[in-house]
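A quick aside before the break. I want you to see a complete sequence-to-structure record at least once, exactly as it would be stored in a machine-readable document. Don't worry about memorizing anything.
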Amino acid sequence: MTACQKVIDVDVRDAEKKYVIEAVVTDEADGSFVKISRTQNISETDPPPAITGADIRVTDDAGIITIFQEANPGNYKAPGFAGTSGKTYELEVNIQGELFTAQCKMPGKVSFDTLYVTDEILFGETRKLANIAFQDPPGKGQAYRYVQYINDKKSDAIFTNNDDYVDGKYIETKLWYFIDDEDDKEEEEITVGDTVLIEMQCIDPQIYQYWFSVFQSATGNSQSASPANPVSNMRGGALGYFSAHTVQRRSVKVE
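That is the input. The structure line, written in tokens, reads:
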């Protein structure tokens, strides 16, 4: 048996570089921040450059303006500022004369009831999973994001859901995750003795679409044939998102 091999050179063109803005307003004092960087070409291996000197303000629907100051390169904060459920917030980011804006309404807080860990079978392998439970209020429109920490290390996995099919019901969700790289298994897998912390965010439906599209297509995984930029509420040409959301946390020691 013989076979032929042919080397194919793929011409990967450099794309126009864009600003990346990650902006968050929470209901916790000092929990709000804005991070700004810039995209890189596929051949570049250095960390994304931080963007300094931006003018950033957040205005609520009562006209109250909060200025975000640069705490360190590319990271901006507003000490003591906390958002309020039901208010709509407008973000303005001015970078050397280029203006980027976004708008988001902070949803009401839904009580994070229960967190526990169970053993589940996945592809013939037993895996420990975090489980969350809470009561969804009646009336469609609620959306949720869950951020998982194992021994204080944030997981890369994306967990979201909404109440399209469970409106007004008691929701019990298992946070299924997949490990693509065996080198990451030790940090990403839940084991006996670990402390698991889950941050539950009540998010605006448009932010749910952002995280859902990140999971579905931005990495080229799941059902997507190729990577694509996620759906964003950012206006002006920047990538990223602006989320106004509530925050609750629960933790459990795995036995």
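Two observations worth writing down. The radius of gyration is 20 Å. The first strand starts at residue 19 and ends at 26. We'll return to this after the break.
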